[in-house]
Specification:
Immunoglobulin-like; signal; 2 domains; four-stranded antiparallel β-sheet; mainly beta; ATP/GTP-binding protein
Amino acid sequence: MLRSGAATLGGLALIVAIAPSASADGETGASGCASMRVCVEVDIPEKPGGSTGPGPSGNGNGNGSSKSDPLIDGTSCEIRRLKPQPPAGSALWEGHEPGDGAVYVNTCAGGLGTANIDTIGGAFWSKSAPAPAVDPAVLARRAVDSMLLEGPVVASPRPEGQYTVGVPMWLWVSQSPTTWGPNTASASAGGITVTATAKVSSVMWDMGDGARITCSGPGTPYTPGRGMTPSPDCGHLYRATSAGQTGSAYKGTATSTWTVDWMVTGGGRTGQLTEVRQSAFTVSVGEVQVVGQ
């Protein structure tokens, strides 16, 4: 590819393209940077193999820092003052003179950010040093971490209940903001506010006898008028007693999957996260008792 101009910025190879320059193979400028005035290519040293290998301790230019770079779209990015500054008259000054503010570059070690295509890897003029960019996904994670998301509160089967082989069992859970949702929280940084809303999307029931049932809702509470009809949306039928089980009861679990939808306040980026919580329960199942006449 054809590139116009080259400078070195703290170990980063900076390719300056005042106007996009087409290459013989039809590509424009550096990879992924066709519409940008300045594109940044980063030489990333290979990390040692293995999961316990040490990570990089510096940035390769003698100015190592223990402070993590800001994250944008999950990639390591940093806003730096361009060195050396462009000469007077350069289009990078955006009509300003050297000494009136400075030209900065938004570097990105992992590639272009999907929501920051106009700034990542691009040079821009600013009167003062801009604040580091903030990844909305990081704020979403922070909002979720501030929530109290608990495992299902199993209403049926009841721990003190006595159930019968061959009789349909109705499964359901109690609902609250912390056990079912919706549960909402927000987090802010760098002028960005992200609001996350969590709600249980399904419950997987492990009944302890080898059966697993996934229900998309909380289940329907049983009422005496239902008789021995199966649950319309979430139920199970035991075919053997729990007499041979430890404690004479089946040991089961109810696992809820929380779906968390988040969005940047005022519009823009959206996303989704998943959380899983689990609760345990026991079921005592016996035979039908027949009374002789």
